[in-house]
Amino acid sequence: MDLLRIALMIVPMAIGLTTALGVLAWTRRRRLSGRRSPLTQGLLRSPGHNLRIQFDDIYFDAMAWVTVMIFFPMLLGALQSSAPLNMDTAVIYSIGAV
Protein backbone atom coordinates (compact mmCIF):
# COMPACT_ATOMS: atom_id res chain seq x y z
CA MET A 1 0.00 0.00 0.00
CA ASP A 2 2.87 2.36 0.77
CA LEU A 3 4.44 1.65 -2.62
CA LEU A 4 1.24 2.78 -4.32
CA ARG A 5 1.22 6.07 -2.41
CA ILE A 6 4.86 6.66 -3.23
CA ALA A 7 4.25 5.88 -6.91
CA LEU A 8 1.25 8.25 -6.97
CA MET A 9 3.51 11.03 -5.69
CA ILE A 10 6.59 10.28 -7.78
CA VAL A 11 4.93 9.73 -11.18
CA PRO A 12 3.36 13.22 -11.49
CA MET A 13 6.57 14.81 -10.23
CA ALA A 14 8.58 12.86 -12.80
CA ILE A 15 6.20 13.87 -15.59
CA GLY A 16 6.44 17.53 -14.57
CA LEU A 17 10.22 17.42 -14.33
CA THR A 18 10.53 15.71 -17.70
CA THR A 19 8.25 18.30 -19.30
CA ALA A 20 10.20 21.18 -17.78
CA LEU A 21 13.54 19.76 -18.92
CA GLY A 22 12.14 19.17 -22.40
CA VAL A 23 10.93 22.76 -22.69
CA LEU A 24 14.28 24.07 -21.47
CA ALA A 25 16.17 21.91 -23.97
CA TRP A 26 13.86 22.99 -26.79
CA THR A 27 14.28 26.70 -26.02
CA ARG A 28 18.03 26.34 -25.71
CA ARG A 29 18.27 24.48 -29.01
CA ARG A 30 16.09 27.10 -30.69
CA ARG A 31 18.12 29.97 -29.24
CA LEU A 32 21.43 28.43 -30.36
CA SER A 33 20.23 27.63 -33.88
CA GLY A 34 20.97 31.19 -35.04
CA ARG A 35 17.44 31.92 -36.21
CA ARG A 36 15.89 35.16 -35.14
CA SER A 37 12.26 36.07 -34.96
CA PRO A 38 11.20 38.82 -37.38
CA LEU A 39 9.04 40.29 -34.62
CA THR A 40 11.96 41.27 -32.36
CA GLN A 41 12.72 44.45 -34.28
CA GLY A 42 10.67 47.54 -33.43
CA LEU A 43 7.32 47.10 -35.10
CA LEU A 44 5.38 50.24 -35.90
CA ARG A 45 2.03 48.47 -35.71
CA SER A 46 0.94 45.04 -34.62
CA PRO A 47 -0.66 42.65 -37.11
CA GLY A 48 -4.33 43.47 -37.68
CA HIS A 49 -3.96 47.04 -36.41
CA ASN A 50 -6.21 48.62 -39.05
CA LEU A 51 -8.79 45.90 -38.60
CA ARG A 52 -8.81 46.52 -34.85
CA ILE A 53 -9.35 50.26 -35.45
CA GLN A 54 -12.29 49.53 -37.78
CA PHE A 55 -13.77 47.13 -35.24
CA ASP A 56 -13.47 49.71 -32.46
CA ASP A 57 -15.22 52.34 -34.60
CA ILE A 58 -18.10 49.99 -35.37
CA TYR A 59 -18.32 48.92 -31.73
CA PHE A 60 -18.48 52.50 -30.43
CA ASP A 61 -21.13 53.42 -33.03
CA ALA A 62 -23.22 50.40 -32.03
CA MET A 63 -22.89 51.22 -28.33
CA ALA A 64 -23.98 54.81 -29.01
CA TRP A 65 -27.11 53.57 -30.78
CA VAL A 66 -27.88 51.10 -28.00
CA THR A 67 -27.51 53.86 -25.43
CA VAL A 68 -29.85 56.12 -27.39
CA MET A 69 -32.42 53.32 -27.79
CA ILE A 70 -32.34 52.65 -24.04
CA PHE A 71 -32.45 56.22 -22.71
CA PHE A 72 -34.62 57.99 -25.31
CA PRO A 73 -37.89 56.27 -24.29
CA MET A 74 -37.08 56.96 -20.65
CA LEU A 75 -36.48 60.62 -21.48
CA LEU A 76 -39.78 60.83 -23.33
CA GLY A 77 -41.56 59.21 -20.41
CA ALA A 78 -40.00 61.65 -17.96
CA LEU A 79 -40.93 64.61 -20.12
CA GLN A 80 -44.46 63.37 -20.54
CA SER A 81 -44.96 62.84 -16.82
CA SER A 82 -43.52 66.25 -15.91
CA ALA A 83 -45.33 68.36 -18.51
CA PRO A 84 -49.02 69.23 -18.36
CA LEU A 85 -50.93 67.15 -20.88
CA ASN A 86 -52.45 69.06 -23.76
CA MET A 87 -52.96 68.23 -27.39
CA ASP A 88 -49.69 69.72 -28.65
CA THR A 89 -47.47 67.81 -26.23
CA ALA A 90 -49.40 64.58 -26.82
CA VAL A 91 -48.76 64.82 -30.57
CA ILE A 92 -45.07 65.64 -30.06
CA TYR A 93 -44.55 62.73 -27.65
CA SER A 94 -46.39 60.26 -29.86
CA ILE A 95 -44.31 61.30 -32.88
CA GLY A 96 -41.11 61.09 -30.82
CA ALA A 97 -42.00 57.63 -29.53
CA VAL A 98 -42.22 56.28 -33.07
Describe the structure.
By secondary structure, the chain is mostly helical. Helix content is 78%, strand content 0%. The chain is elongated, with a radius of gyration of 33 Å. The model has no long low-confidence stretch (mean pLDDT 78).
Classify the beta-strand content into a percent band. Answer: under 5%
Work out the radius of gyration.
Answer: 33 Å
**H/E element sequence:** HHH
How far is it from the N-terminal to the C-terminal residue, by CA? 78 Å
Major beta sheet, specifics? none
Helix content: over 70%
Number of helices: 3
Number of strands: 0
Indicate the mean pLDDT.
Answer: 78
Shape: elongated
Unreliably modeled segments: none
Structural class: mainly alpha
